[in-house]
Here is the input.
Amino acid sequence: QVQLLESGGGLVEPGGSLRLSCAGSGFSFSDYYISWVRQAPGKGLEWIAYISGSGASLHYADSVEGRFTISRDNAKGSLFLQMSSLRAEDTAVYFCAKGWASHRFGAGSYYPDWGQGTLVTVSS
Amino acid sequence: QSALTQPPSVSGAPGQRVTISCTGTSSNIGTHYDVQWYQQLPGTAPKLLIWGNTIRHSGVPDRFSGSRSDTSASLAITDLQADDEADYYCQSYDLSLRALVFGGGTKLTVL
Here is the structure.
């Protein structure tokens, strides 16, 4: 059974940094692309970062480009999101979402499996 | 403002049929990028309902169906049930933005 478990959320001051993790189990971790998708309180879903199964292909939304870094450790079955220069508008629940192939960004990119999310609050 | 536009809310009585629209542009749905649909129950993670415009994800009842035409897509739910009450999101890829995009979401209320 596929499981994705996010951790690392919490309260951070504006300008601060935070590292989120997503532990995957029940599947061959390196065989699937994964994205981070966030949801601000009471708002809709926003895709923010993508990484291919090998880690060689990365894509970011303009809203986080240059501030956030997605990475993965396939040996440990873990995905990460290093967030820096955090702003109030980064306050959201952050979900990791697993794709269906090793690399698909663009046509045919969708997410059958999601974690339960971790809340990041940026406030002084 | 989302690249994909959905109505903020729809409603229907149990047993009825409702549709949720997702309007895009020539840089996403109109460029033939597939549309997906997700259901998000209150306080939970999104669940994939439809992928590739019309294909139901495993375990999704056939009461849910998707369609696409030109620059828009629709999700239809027949025989509406109380536990269908949720937020629904469409998703595609936008060539101009070079990003995966979601609609703003539609809250379905079962009367």
Observations:
- Chain B has a mean pLDDT of 95.
- The first strand of chain B starts at residue 9 and ends at 12.
